[in-house]
Amino acid sequence: MISRINSVLPDHLTINQLINHLGLEIEEHRVQMPDGHLSQHPHPVALGDRRTQANFQTDFSESQEELVTDPNDTSADALNQLHTLQKTLTAQLAPDEIIWPLSMPPYLSENDLTYLDTHFERPWYGEYRRVLIDRYGYYQHIMTGIHVNFSLSSDALSWLTQNMAYQDCDAVYFQILKQVSKYRWLITYLFGASLVSENQAADHLLQQRPDLTEPVRSWRSSSVGFDNYADIQPTFTSLSAFLQDIQQLVASGKLYDQSEYYGPVRVKQYQADQAPAKTCVNYLEFRIFDIDPFSTDGISPRALSVLELLIFEAIYFPEDKLETTMQQSKANNDLVALQHPNVALPTALQDEFKHLLAHMQALTDLVDDDAQQQSWQDAINYMTENIEAPVSTLSQQLLPHLVANSLHDFALQRGQAWKQAHEN
Fold first, then answer.
1. Strand partners of residue 64
2. In angstroms, what CA-CA distances link 413 with 30, 34, 95, 117?
3. Mean pLDDT of the chain
């Protein structure tokens, strides 16, 4: 397989030049000190009109800021811009506000719920929001996370379709979608960071699993976290079938529109008048990361390196007949997400992990850019450290900060540290 990879890469196109654009989106709540309840201060006017300001949006609640980078050439550039956006947001916070650095929201009192219900300043989003409340309740949609937007360069797509038996560009993207979805459990294992709910007693989604005792690795990434109901399962036989299933779910009323599909990877399509010949995929949106409270901006370079390695592993080591394994892969992710952070992966998943690492190492060895190779090798070393036991996964690092089954005090301390870091 190494020779096959080498045969695909022309002299002028090395693996570290395959990315066209990478962008980041982070959802995060403003909270008010000293108690850490969702902020009731308005969205800062200085951040611009939310109808037109691309970098500063809000989501389900007025407190739920959404920072969106532009498309960047590299993950490092995207992280640098995210840091700048975080600093800009911090400069506009009220004196008693900080950013809540966890995916699971703080405790919501009845006053908080009333405020959520009665205060919403984006009427163009109001109908959809009401549908979501009726369908899922309040708690699911104030969970927050990181989305990574990704596209390949035109040169890379051209070479892949000419040399690796991909029928067209859409086939390349669909292979990535399938394979990263299948191995989503790896991201959950390494970077799951939503151990407990501060609203366990009131959240009807979490009450569906009374058999579980917190902490778990990631409530948000589980089937009782930020997920659709079990009957929302598009097929993975082809891109057209996948997209058609989602369209049919919208037509039937099970989804409000395509944005209500909460799978791990979402297809972003070209508009009809923008679509290049024979392609409909503009980019892929990966929706698989919890907020990392130990990283000042919510996601680490290492996490992005692991995702890049998963993407390129999918391209260069494609697997066939994934449809038969997709249901099992969803169950695998749920199992990993709902494990105690101290529990090791099942032996079968450890074996898959080692198989993936061998492929990833082969890719890393081909990179001719020293910085890129170092970042990928660091990611591989981190993964290797955690194969047989969770030594330094995010959930494992969070465990010592649990007090009375809550991360509330830790979140306030980290939120204040974030604020100080972004003020400097």
1. 29
2. 14, 11, 16, 28
3. 90
**Is the separation of the CB atoms in 99 and 90 below 8 Å?**
yes
- Angstrom distance (rounded) from CA 401 to CA 407: 6
Look at the chain and report how many structural domains it folds into: 1
Considering Cα of 83, then 87, then 88, then 90, what sign does the dihedral take?
A: positive
Q: Show the tokens assigned to 414.
A: 């980290």
Q: How many residues does the chain have?
A: 424
What does the block give as tokens for 401? 């900060």
CA distances from 132 to 25, 84, 191, 264, 266 (A): 21, 32, 27, 19, 18
Tell me, yes or no, whether 238 lies in a domain: no
Tens of pLDDT, residue by residue over 162-216, are 877 789 999 999 999 999 999 999 999 999 999 999 997 776 666 777 788 789 9
DSSP state, residue 287: E
Q: Is residue 272 part of a domain?
A: yes
> Measured between alpha carbons, how far is 205 from 136 in angstroms, rounded to an integer?
8
Place of tokens 């993207």: 173
d(CA 215, CA 394): 13
- State pLDDT tens for residues 95-117: 999 999 999 999 999 999 999 88
Q: Which residues pair with 66 in a beta bridge?
A: 27, 57
How far apart are alpha carbons 98 and 17 in whole angstroms? 38
- DSSP string covering 307-333: HHHHHHHHHHS--S-THHHHHHHHHHH
Which residue segment(s) compose the domain that 287 sits in?
Answer: 2-227+262-423
For residue 243, is it within any domain? no
- Full-prediction pTM beyond 0.85? yes
What CATH number does residue 40 fall under?
A: 3.30.590.20
